[in-house]
């Protein structure tokens, strides 16, 4: 069964690196949960959150042209939280403000990443030799 973007699947963690965790999905394909997609909080070490051979539910957030599959545990939790929020539909002002601030920060971070990717190496400070 081929995976598609937006799909939620369960897989087995087959390897952990300093930049994320590899997850074997149904059909024998492997995807990567980047360290930034492991949890809502800051993740210094992936091993603090995940262990090899753990079964995890992940959301497919991207498939590159060369077949690399990007996965997220964080976005899966966000979508379940969003569903619960819609069910309640009577959030307090503080809850609404907190959600707005989090969404704004994520959008700004995405814009910064995009801008830095376009700048290439010219925008970075260079070491003086």
From TrEMBL:
CDD domains: S1_RPS1_repeat_hs4. Keywords: Ribonucleoprotein, Ribosomal protein. GO terms for biological process: translation. GO terms for molecular function: mRNA binding; structural constituent of ribosome. Pfam families: S1. GO terms for cellular component: ribonucleoprotein complex; ribosome. PROSITE patterns: S1. Residues 6-74 form the S1 motif domain. SUPFAM superfamilies: Nucleic acid-binding proteins. InterPro entries: NA-bd_OB-fold (IPR012340), Ribos_protein_bS1-like (IPR050437), S1_domain (IPR003029). Binds mRNA; thus facilitating recognition of the initiation point. It is needed to translate mRNA with a short Shine-Dalgarno (SD) purine-rich sequence. Belongs to the bacterial ribosomal protein bS1 family. This is S1 RNA-binding domain-containing protein.
